Amino acid sequence: xxxxxxxxxxxxxxxxxxxxxxxxxxxxxxxxxxxxxxxxxxxxxxxxxxxxxxxxxxxxxxxxxxxxxxxxxxxxxxxxxxxxxxxxxxxxxxxxxxxxxxxxxxxxxxxxxxxxxxxxxxxxxxxxxxxxxxxxxxxxxxxxxxxxxxxxxxxxxxxxxxxxxxxxxxxxxxxxxxxxxxxxxxxxxxxxxxxxxxxxxxxxxxxxxxxxxxxxxxxxxxxxxxxxxxxxxxxxxxxxxxxxxxxxxxxxxxxxxxxxxxxxxxxxxxxxxxxxxxxxxxxxxxxxxxxxxxxxxxxxxxxxxxxxxxxxxxxxxxxxxxx
Length: 323
Description:
- With 323 residues, this protein is mostly helical.
- It is 77% helix and 0% strand.
- It is built from 14 helices and no strands.
- It has helices at residues 2-25, 35-70, 83-97, 100-103, 109-131, 136-159, 163-173, 182-201, 203-208, 213-218, 223-245, 251-263, 267-292, 299-316.
- It is globular, with a radius of gyration of 20 Å.
- The two termini are 20 Å apart.
């Protein structure tokens, strides 16, 4: 029965993703666009946009779902444990200290720098977690400390920023699916794909963590080694996602929660469903942006507008739990 429900949910998500992708491909087909211009837009704008939405949404949702199991905390979102803040701080430095890289169109420099910032924050979190012997609460506290420090440094940078730099930085920090191209995806895309495949392959081992460290060890799985693997792989995927799309709120927090309500806690079914649902969420955000034709809305503004009320509703109903 659970298997049939999982197949039905995943089938519905696949159909919804396909429809969203078709709507993005055909957004300019009904106008006065010539065939040559249509294919140029499709190959150089629409397909990179679709790949970015699918990969970033899936990577954020699957990484967050895995982190929530390892840390035994439903609030284990990349923004909370400090991975996103490292990339955001580097973005602030690039936009405010070296604005020439942004204004002259050197967009590849900024995502590459953000990716480095995400990896640096992940490395700091890993070192602190290892020194504190991998305690799950210590990892979250270390992430909060890094996020707070990054926010403070960004506030100092804002003091010296001009109006244009502040507007660019605000848009980047709220997320965008339009900051990438094929060159950037050629680097970040394989990293996000590796994250998805590797975490889904670890799903059977993640199930043992629900029973605690002793039960996991009795099953022949080292809890410490598994925690370290998931932490590093998830951080790698989230760092790549933030480097191409900026900081995106609520996708990593809400998608795993609502998939658990539909499918339960078996990670063998949960992680693939989270990948599809995360991809669908960002595809729908892209559809809203493409058909508005007025302004490119920041991704986090849309996801937070929808996700905030859903989070309050889940808390009010007392449905927020991990196991």
